[in-house]
Amino acid sequence: MSELLSPPPDGAGLPLTQTQKDLIGGSIGGITQVLVGQPFDIVKVRVQTAPPGTYSSPLDCATKLLKADGPLGFYKGTLTPLLGIGACVSIQFGALEFAKRFFAQRAKGRDLNLGEFWLSGAFAGVANTVVANPVEHIRIRLQTQPDTVPRMYNGPLDCAIKLYKNGGGLKGVFKAQVPTMLRDGVGYGCYFLTYEALVQRHLKATNLSRDQISPLWAVTYGAVAGYALWFSSVLPF
């Protein structure tokens, strides 16, 4: 019995390739991202798409949403991004690491420069849109449909089927694919460029290795990189 309860020896378990680790880590991060960000996202979408005068501010929108639908109202339309975000972020980080390894093989031992980090991030952003664009399209349709009976869409699958039938096939599901590719390519290029620039500056100033950076600094740099993504892509688009 003690042998069954003892921890596995070092190296035991299923071996994972670096790509598999990137995909699994991206999935976990993406699901967490949805659960934390969805309430803010639905308020943003409501404020942006509601007729003038419906909400006086984002706080007013959140208050009315809470009164009308309760706490779960903030997670309306969450199933689609929750199912899709794992795939989205997995593709994103898998593509990012693939591109970084591609440039590293040609760098002949030197560190990647910021331009190569930008290109890696841009490649990851464009790859991400293959799943992210239809997921985002369906999510917005569900979040903004009127509260009428019968409902326009009875869930993500019904929404996807109707977009396919009424929008000319895949063209209806992947509506605005090119602008989304441009948005995410520029945005994630700036995101990873900013993050790496801050990390490299930190490493030079402290003489630490990358794995010695504290979680607090990593989160701080990630937050700053998030603002870079927002101002470079989300606001213009």
| Number of beta strands | 0
The secondary-structure class comes to mainly alpha
CATH superfamily of the domain at 17-176: Mitochondrial carrier domain
The radius of gyration computed from the alpha-carbon positions, rounded to a whole number of angstroms, is 21 Å
Characterize the main sheet.
Answer: none
Q: Which whole number gives the mean pLDDT?
A: 85
Order of secondary-structure elements: HHHHHHHHH
- End-to-end Cα distance: 60 Å
Report what the structure shows.
- The protein is mostly helical.
- The protein has a domain at 17-176: Mitochondrial carrier fold (Alpha/alpha barrel).
- The protein is built from nine helices and no strands.
- α2 packs across α4 and α5 (114-144) crosses α8.
- It is globular and about 65 Å long.
